[in-house]
User: What shape does this take?
Amino acid sequence: MHKEELWKLALGEIELSISKANFVTWFKNTHILSMENGHVIIGVPNGFAKEWLENKYRSYILKALQHIESGVSTVSCKISVSSDTPREPSVDAIISPQKSLRKASFKPKSSASILDANLNPKYTFENFVIGGNNELARAACYAVSQSPGRIYNPLFIYGGVGLGKTHLLQSIGNEILQKDPAFKIKYISSERFTNDLITSLQTNKISDFKDYYQKIDLLIIDDIQFISGKEKTQEEFFHIFNYLYQLNKQIVLSSDRPPKAIQILEERLRSRFEGGMIADVSQPDFETRVAILRKRAQEEALIIEEEAINFIAENVVNNIRELEGALNRVIASAQLTGQRLSFDFVSSTLASLISSGKKKGVSYKDVLRVISDFYEVDINDLLRKNRKKEVVKPRQIAMYLLRTELNFSYPGIGGKIGGRDHTTALHAFEKITQELALNEKLQEELKFLKERLYSL
Ligand code: ADP
Ligand code: MG
Assistant: This one.
């Protein structure tokens, strides 16, 4: 296939998986420069597009190309401004007139106009449960909230997903704001920071961007690991960091790993990150898990049996987000069916979640096979984008089972089942969950499907 043709098809696919604004911004004036031994080089108009495409969209691009040309194995971008840049296929050729109109009216939001702390008031120190896993991090955050800019600067909190980093970071902001509403606080994820920076560069508003950040008293950047490899972002951040630091303004950062382990991070930034206080959050122990569940139950005025709480705490161990997810799930089922949160109810509701198919060596192909046999639909129809009624429900049940039996993530499910978006998977899961609570026939079907799955 010609590279022009390949890129045109790939763009068509990428367009479906990202927002219009992003598609137009980042894929305009791109083309395939070369294709050799499975390595595809995309020509892009400037360094920002290169940085952004490689960091943010590489997997989309790769997936789209592989769908069309299975031999593609890697992708990179190269700045190419030559006059013989192929004009076709350009994004304009693909987007329809209406979409072009949208493009014309799309104005990047300028973050530099008003100061919005961007804090969620639900994250406070009061509702943060202290345990051995987060004691130090919590103490450091609390200390910083009591005298920002004076003791630990920067404060760097790291740990795995769902362990309370965002909660702690935002608690600092909320605590300070409560005492001093005029304190200038900004909470932002590093991805959003990068996004805003690029927008301001593109719209010649970089000095507004800098002014904005230089006025801040407390800058909180969440998930800083995502600036890995983004040179321009690192450079600008370095200057903002130094500026604030010299004025004794507080900087708080979080990451999924310690500074040492962040790949492709400029040495001068790494040493800044290591120059203050570093504290980690780790997995909560059983007592902490129980305490967190109790606190939530109390906040929501739930009546839940002690053994039911213990059951959840014993079985959901990875992180606090999953713990809350499990609790929310039993609350939702109990509300739908009008049942009490007894040990029996909770343990049977969570049984499928806990006896994960992973342990029993069930694969996603097994799920598809069982569904295909039982509902008499072709596996390929399950995978294809096909809205026929006969396949929609079996497909949703397949997605549901991938979630409950194999603990697949929503993007993972979307990817496996015909390259769909994670929202489709989430929707399917919620739809089936709701239906299950009301529909006995469906309950029977699922019971049967699971038996089949585990007796393969
Ligand atoms: P992270 O940012 O580390 O991925 P979050 O801060 O988003 O994790 O935490 C996930 C969820 O768990 C949030 O709803 C948060 O409020 C809750 N959570 C985490 N740790 C605690 C804790 N120690 N006490 C109470 N709730 C917690
Ligand atoms: Mg977080």
